[in-house]
Specification:
- By secondary structure, the protein is an alpha/beta fold.
- It has five domains: 5-197, P-loop containing nucleotide triphosphate hydrolases (Rossmann fold, 3-Layer(aba) Sandwich); 205-340 and 538-549, Rossmann fold (3-Layer(aba) Sandwich), CATH 3.40.50; 344-414 and 497-525, Orthogonal Bundle (Arc Repressor Mutant, subunit A); 418-492; 569-631, Orthogonal Bundle (Arc Repressor Mutant, subunit A).
- Helices cover 45% and strands 15% of the residues.
- The protein is built from 26 helices and 21 strands.
- The protein has a seven-stranded parallel beta sheet, sandwiched between helices. Strands 8-13-12-9-11-10 form a six-stranded parallel beta sheet, with helices on both faces. Strands 14-19-15 form a three-stranded antiparallel beta sheet.
- Helix 5 links the parallel strand 3 (84-87) and strand 4 (110-113).
- Helix 5 packs parallel to helix 6 (121-129) and helix 19 crosses helix 20 (472-484).
- It is globular and about 85 Å long.
- The chain starts with a helix and ends with a strand.
């Protein structure tokens, strides 16, 4: 006899009751209905498809966008004794064949796929032969052109409806506006779906904006008073390393996490943070998907995110245990222009798309009407240099051409060579004395890249060769020598990339097919960023109200704990009571000056000074001979 959803929940998750709309969603799936589940970050989305899949006979197919997210969920299921398989990129054909056989005959309950895998004939053929009890599309906002994280490959998810028309489907996301939700149900061809939206309100999170010229100093203050764990989000790999080092130097236990570190290092760093061996993880926005750490007390955005969806999802990783937590964005006067430059100025317009596509064909001497299915190797830097192209704009153009099936790029396209000097500066001078042949190139690298002793640093071999007046081959040879002699850590990635032309050359006509779609995507990105900047600049409306309104939800009252609510007038009694409680707790630990108290407390300076005055008048604190405040 099959077990009930509650029995499955108790057996594998150890909970006696479902929360939010989980039970309602599971019940609909067991009735063979399609479901769109809009649940907040930390709302237990995976339980909504994993439990009914375990109740029913057969296997559940789960499509997910990130390999790290897939692996995390597969590992979690395996730890519970549930048989699950991950089918991501980079697996040889024979192994894919064997894994699919296991899904058909090995009693597996979950098959996790990247959307790219759905494009393979062998995968589609085998799926049709499987006893599939449920299809789950995780991070479903990726399927919508209106979504903040649209991924063209996600459109392939719709093929599952054609392959398995009778199988119920659930789409799940934590960040969907009404437009995105409508897009998801339309593209996936949902039939009279149950649409469930739990409140996105996170009453225990205090959303705050800090405007600081010295952002690092404020970050140091926030992290120094952290009891539990925290996440600091930055936009670049280099800055994640830099900030982690800064925090460690200033007394906080921190490490960095980004897509460029090895799988072994990722696992090590994640384990240290999850087990509270390290308090703070400084990460790029790839971090956090599928990672359920309940006691995150602080999430800091050190730079402005590109959309409210991304911000809210990342900030929502705080306070999953229900305890008080903070989500703080630190900004200054120059940040808005910097974020516009980073996200908007590198979006190629139609004219540039046509220019690059034309030059690409000319570079390989492809005649009009020819080129389909031809494959070449391209030295990207040499190509950009030949036609004086901005490399970042050209890179984004290549990605757009790839996304719209004009060309196909190999997976190493976005990788670059990186170097870190590991020898001491003293031993380096001795090495130079004995190896004069490498001095010119090595010194060029040292002069070009600051911090190369402290961080793994991306380098441009072509630029180094020009500066050193030598060939790229010679630079690469010297880098290999330095690596072999243990002077540097060196990850080599030549600039050649495999590029396949998927359609015949038709110049402007080729681009015109999707030009309006690209223009619309750029407009959406600009709108998303504008909404984010408006949220930051709005100093009148409660932060929680602003966020909920963006997602189409109306808040009944102000949160009382965001920066706007707390600074709404010096006489705000709730704020003054909170300040008083926190201040007395600090003085219980040790006496402090008013300056130190202001540093420690994240409230308006005037409010803190007002509370100090009241506590002095009430005889609860006093000033000692060192001009510090202490308890009476």
């Amino acid at each position: 006899m099959r077990k009930s959803p509650n029995e499955i929940l108790q057996q594998y998750w150890g909970f006696s009751d479902f929360r939010g709309s989980q039970e309602k969603i599971i019940s609909a799936i067991l009735q063979e209905k399609d479901v769109l589940a809009l649940l907040p970050t930390g709302g237990g989305k995976s339980v909504c498809f994993q439990v009914p899949a375990l109740v029913k006979e057969g296997i559940c197919i789960v499509v997910s966008p990130l390999i790290a997210l897939i692996q995390n969920q597969v590992d979690s299921l395996r730890e519970k004794g549930i048989k699950a398989i991950a089918l991501t990129g980079g697996i040889p054909f024979d192994e894919v064949n064997n894994l699919l056989d296991n899904c058909m005959f090995g009693g597996y309950k979950f098959l996790y796929l990247s959307p790219e895998r759905l494009q393979q004939d062998i995968v589609q053929e085998r799926i049709q032969k499987m006893n599939v009890n449920l299809i789950a599309i995780d991070e479903a906002h990726c399927i919508s052109h209106w979504g903040h994280d649209f991924r063209p490959a996600y459109l392939e998810c719709s093929i599952l409806r054609e392959l398995l028309p009778e199988t119920p489907m659930i789409a799940l996301t934590a960040t969907a506006t009404k437009q995105v939700a409508a897009d998801i149900t339309d593209i996936l061809k949902f039939v009279t779906p149950l649409v469930v939206k739990d409140s996105f309100s996170r009453k225990n999170i205090s959303f705050k904006i800090y405007r600081e010229e010295d952002k690092r100093y404020r970050l140091k203050q926030l992290c120094s008073r952290l009891d539990k764990s925290g996440i600091v989000y930055v936009r670049t790999r280099r800055l994640s390393q830099d900030i982690a080092q800064y925090l460690n130097t200033n007394g906080s236990s921190a490490t960095y996490f980004h897509g460029g570190i090895s799988k072994k290092d990722k696992e090590k760093k994640l384990k240290q943070w999850l087990q509270n061996e390290i308090k703070i993880i400084v990460a790029t926005n790839a971090f956090g998907m599928g990672i359920d750490k309940p006691d995150v007390q602080l999430v800091v955005h050190f730079q402005i995110p590109d959309s409210i969806e991304n911000y809210f999802q990342e900030a929502g990783r705080a306070g999953r245990d229900g305890n008080a937590a903070e989500a703080i964005l630190i900004t200054n006067k120059t940040d808005a222009e910097l974020v516009k430059k980073q996200f908007l100025s590198v979006l190629p317009d139609t004219a540039f798309l046509k220019l690059v596509y034309n030059k690409l064909n000319n570079y390989f001497q492809i005649a009009y009407g020819e080129g389909k299915d031809e494959k070449f190797q391209l030295n990207f830097n040499a190509f950009c240099s030949t036609y004086s192209l901005n490399t970042l704009l050209a890179y984004n153009t290549m990605q757009i051409l790839d996304q719209n099936s004009v060309i196909a790029l190999n997976e190493s396209f976005s990788k670059k060579s990186s170097v870190q000097f590991i020898a001491s500066k003293a031993s380096l001078f001795d090495y130079f004395e004995k190896n004069q042949n490498i001095v010119s190139v090595a010194q060029t690298i040292l002069r070009t890249y600051g911090g190369i002793f402290d961080f793994d640093t991306k380098i441009n071999v072509r630029m180094i060769s020009k500066k050193a007046n030598t060939s790229e081959a010679h630079v690469s040879k010297i880098l290999e020598q330095l690596k072999n002699d243990e002077i540097i850590n060196y990850t080599a990635q030549h600039n050649d990339l495999d590029i396949s032309f998927l359609v015949p050359r038709e110049d402007d006509i080729t681009i015109n097919v999707f030009a309006s779609k690209v223009k619309e995507r750029h407009r959406i990105k600009a709108d998303n960023l504008e909404h984010m900047l408006t949220y930051i600049s709005n100093k009148k409306l409660c932060r929680s109200r602003q966020l909920l309104r963006y997602f189409g939800e109306k808040a009944e009252k102000d949160c009382e704990i965001c920066d706007i609510c707390m600074n709404r007038g010096d006489s705000n009694k709730t704020v003054l009571v909170l300040i008083s409680e926190e201040l007395l707790l600090l003085l219980k630990e040790s006496p402090m000056t008013s300056r130190k108290l202001i540093e420690k407390l994240s409230y308006k300076d005037a409010n803190i000074l007002l509370v100090i005055q009241h506590l002095l008048e009430d005889g609860l604190i006093r000033i000692n001979t060192k001009n510090q405040y202490e308890l009476e």
